[in-house]
Amino acid sequence: MGLFVLLGEVNDVQIRKEAWETEGEQKKETKRMKIVVIGAGAMGLRYGVLLQEAGNDVHFVDTWEPNVEEIRKNGGVHVWRDGKDERFVKVSISYPEDYHETPELAIVFVKDMHTVETMERCQHFISEQTYVLTNQNGFGGAEYIARFVPRTHIIAGTAMIATVMKGPGKVDFIGKRGGGHVHIVRVEGEPNDFIYKVAAEMEKALMHPTVQKDYMGTVWTKLVFNSVVNTLCTLMNIKMGQFAAYKNAKEMSRKLIYEAYEAIDAEGFKMEVTRDELVEQVMYVSEVGNPLHYPSMHQDMSTNRPTEVDYINGAIVRLAEKHGLEAPYHSMLVDLVHLKEESRKYNEE
Ligand SMILES: NC(=O)C1=CN([C@@H]2O[C@H](COP(=O)(O)OP(=O)(O)OC[C@H]3O[C@@H](n4cnc5c(N)ncnc54)[C@H](OP(=O)(O)O)[C@@H]3O)[C@@H](O)[C@H]2O)C=CC1
Ligand SMILES: CC(C)(CO)C(=O)C(=O)O
Prior knowledge:
- The structure is a single chain.
- The protein is an alpha/beta fold.
- 48% of the residues lie in helices and 17% in strands.
- Helix 2 crosses helix 7 (193-204) and helix 10 crosses helix 13 (313-322).
- It starts with a helix and ends with a helix.
- The protein has helices spanning 2-6, 13-29, 42-53, 65-74, 115-122, 141-145, 193-204, 215-236, 240-244, 249-267, 275-289, 296-302, 313-322, 328-348; strands at residues 34-38, 57-61, 76-81, 84-90, 93-94, 105-108, 131-134, 154-160, 163-167, 170-173, 181-186, 209-211.
- An eight-stranded mixed sheet has the order 5-2-1-6-7-8-11-12, with helices on both faces. It has a four-stranded mixed sheet with strand order 4-3-10-9.
- Residues 137, 160, 162, 226, 229-230, 285, 290, 293, 295-296 line the site of ketopantoate.
């Protein structure tokens, strides 16, 4: 099926099938996975709640005080689905310093630029056996984690799942239950039993995981996707569907994706999809997948926080420069986003 191929899953059908086939046995044989989620923002809560509801033992740590205090006070979080069907989910949360157990899996969902300072506060509970998973956007998260954790124990990847933090202790899961998918990949080493165990838990949580084999290709494919959608929606203050509705949206996407792929091809990354397939994916996910979503960078812009543009479009510019190339569209977008970040102070006056 066309989209299936576009989303880069075709190479992994076999791997995915195996994860499905072993799921029933694993349910019987394996105990629940002990998971700590580092960063109880939008995506941390999404993964943590879904994995908890799939039967795992999940604890959250966060450094954002109003969030920790609100969740503690209430004993859980309020969850919406596309702004509707509010429900309350009990969760346990603490500051990193107050957590002293040994998780099998730590899932990092802070913004790229906060990864190092957060990992410093978490390293006491990361044992030699702990695997650390990140599905942060942009290029950098897994590399920062590698300062604290052996590369063989880092699982990187990407999430085509949209989530919005409505305020401390309040999260909106965008998209239908079971919509979206994640790609996971070991930063170093072939897929092993542990990554399949994680995939099986994700499958139970209806997150539709695919185990990939190429770290850089996996991360950079989503990075280029975000370099179009996150950045343009943030600059224009629009939802993904509103971007897709613009008559020249496809041509704009094509220009940005082609420019990025020049640098990527020079570096030799093995991307999940071709440049034209990625153009189609941007249009499809914006139009059909998440038309009502304001991408995460937009959420940062509107809550007066720094964006991840340096890890997304900025990473493309740096890769181009490394190969003596120019990336003028992406370079301009980086400046426009930073200009908009700075301009917020004038709007407040
Ligand atoms: N949201 C999405 O749909 C998707 C996001 N991602 C990626 O996942 C990673 C995490 O993003 P996401 O979950 O969206 O991040 P959030 O902004 O929701 O949460 C991340 C952290 O930011 C801080 N924070 C959140 N909201 C506020 C606020 N209003 N005021 C002050 N601080 C706040 C919190 O801790 P602290 O202040 O200690 O940092 C929180 O733990 C990023 O790399 C993102 O690109 C990937 C796919 C989809
Ligand atoms: C757009 C999305 C959800 C990918 O689908 C994303 O990565 C984000 O909001 O940052």
